[in-house]
């Protein structure tokens, strides 16, 4: 198993009481949510890098089409 770290957050006493009364594994739910946030951030950063690359490439070789436009064009020619 990977090394782990502890993080702490402050929540209201009311919310803490509700969590204790529930059957929700809130620690696991928080872990999942944090991982989803990181995955989303990685995708956003990758898309930014791709767009920056395409912009630079477009300046060097001319305008480039998005992959969506290329796929749509191919589909139109098939039908």
Put simply, the count of helices is 3
Largest sheet report: none
Tertiary shape: elongated
Going by helix content, strand content and strand pairing, the class is mainly alpha
Helix content: over 70%
The total strand number stands at 0
Uncertain runs = none
Distance between the termini: 51 Å
Rounded to an integer, what's the Rg over CA atoms? 23 Å
Mean pLDDT: 86
H/E topology pattern: HHH
**How large is the share of residues in beta strands?**
under 5%
The count of domains is 1
Question: What this model shows, in words?
Answer:
- With 79 residues, this protein is mainly α.
- The protein has one domain.
- The chain has 3 helices and no strands.
- The protein has helices spanning 13-21, 26-61, 67-78.
- The longest helix has 36 residues, at 26-61.
- It is elongated.
Give the gist of this structure.
This protein has 79 residues and is mainly alpha-helical. The chain has helices at residues 13-21, 26-61, 67-78. The longest helix is centred in the middle third of the chain and has 36 residues, at 26-61.
Q: What would the keywords be for this entry?
A:
79 residues, mainly alpha
Topology record:
Layout: H1 13-21, H2 26-61, H3 67-78
């Amino acid at each position: 198993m990977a090394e782990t770290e502890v993080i702490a957050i402050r929540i209201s006493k009311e919310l803490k009481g509700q969590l204790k009364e529930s059957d929700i594994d809130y620690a696991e739910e928080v872990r999942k949510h944090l991982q989803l946030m990181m995955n989303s951030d990685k995708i956003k950063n990758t898309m930014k890098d791709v767009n920056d690359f395409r912009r630079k490439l477009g300046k060097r070789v001319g305008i480039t089409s998005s992959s969506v436009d290329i796929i749509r064009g191919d589909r139109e020619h098939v039908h």
